[in-house]
Amino acid sequence: MLEQRIQQQFFDSADLKYAAAEAMTRPLAQAVHVILEAITNGGKVLACGNGGSAGDAQHFAAEFVGRFERDRPGLAAISLVTDTSILTAIANDYSFEQIFAKQVHALGQPGDILLAISTSGNSPNVLAAMDAAHEKEMTVIALTGKGGGHMGERLFETDIHLCVPHQRTARIQEVHLLTLHCLCDGVDTLLLGDEDGDA
Fold first, then answer.
1. pLDDT tens string 79-92
2. Which of 100, 135, 144, 183 is most open to solvent, judged by the fewest CB atoms within 10 Å of its CB?
3. What is the predicted pLDDT for the residue at 197?
4. Where are the chain's structural domains?
5. How far apart are CA 8 and CA 1, in angstroms?
6. DSSP state, residue 4
7. Predicted TM-score (pTM) above 0.70
8. What is the Cα–Cα distance from 91 to 103, expressed in whole angstroms?
C-alpha cells in the first residue's frame, strides 16, 4: 500500500509536468527574454516567497550569482528572504506583510525584475512586494498555482504569469523548481550558446 502511494506520487508529478509543459512553455520563454534584457542592461532580479517558496527564491539567486550548469560570470540576483535582521526589523517595526515590499522599495530600480513566488497566489507579503515593484517601474514575473489567486489579478500587461495548472501545493512546488531551472537554463543558453550542461 505504501509503495503504491509512493509510486503514485511520481506518476502524478510526471503527469503534471506534461500538462505544465503545454501551458507554460510560451510564458517561460518570454520570462527568459525579459530577465536577459534586464540583466544585460545593468538590472537585477529580486526574488521572494514564503516557506518552500522562500527556499525557491534562495535557490534561484544562488544559481544566478554562482552558476547553474555552466561556468559564466555571475548574474545579478538577490533573495529577499535571507537577511534575518532586515526581516525581523521590518516585521517588528511595521508588519510581516511589509517584509519584502520595504526591500523592493530600497533595492529595486526601474528595469529590474521581481520574481514573486506563491503556490496559492494569495500571500499578502508577496502581493505587497508586487505593488512595490510596480511603483518602482519593475517587471513582475509571478510563479503561482491554483489559478493564480490575487497575484494573477494584480499583474500588469507587461508582467509575466507562470501559473502551474494544479491545486495541490506539493505538485505546484515541484513544477516551480523545474520552472526556475528552465529560467536559468534559458538565460545561460542565450548568453553562452546551446550546449548541454556538464554538471
1. 999 999 999 999 99
2. 135
3. 47
4. 25-192
5. 11
6. H
7. yes
8. 12
Q: Beta-strand (E) ranges in the chain?
A: 45-48, 77-79, 113-117, 139-145, 160-164
Q: For residue 71, count CB atoms less than 10 angstroms from its CB and return exposed for 0-12, middle for 13-18, buried for 19 or more.
A: exposed
**CA 19, 23, 29: angle at the middle one, nearest 5?**
125
The string of pLDDT tens digits covering residues 100-147 is: 999 999 999 999 999 999 999 999 999 999 999 999 999 999 999 999
Assign 196 a pLDDT band (cuts: 50, 70, 90): low
| Spatial separation of the C-alpha atoms in residues 143 and 145, rounded to whole Å | 7
Q: How far apart are CA 158 and CA 18, in angstroms?
A: 27
User: Count of residues for the chain?
Assistant: 199
- Give the C-alpha separation, 175 to 154, whole Å: 22
pLDDT at 8: 96
Question: Which of 195, 160, 116 minimizes the C-alpha distance to 24?
Answer: 160
Q: By three-state DSSP, how is residue 196 classified?
A: coil
HSE toward the beta carbon, residue 188, CA cutoff 13 A: 23
Please check whether the domain covering 25-192 is classified as CATH 3.40.50.10490: yes
C-alpha 94, offset from chain centre: 25
Alpha-carbon distances, residue 179 vs 56, 124, 182 (angstroms): 10, 23, 5
Residue 175, amino acid = V
Strands 113-117 and 77-79: unpaired
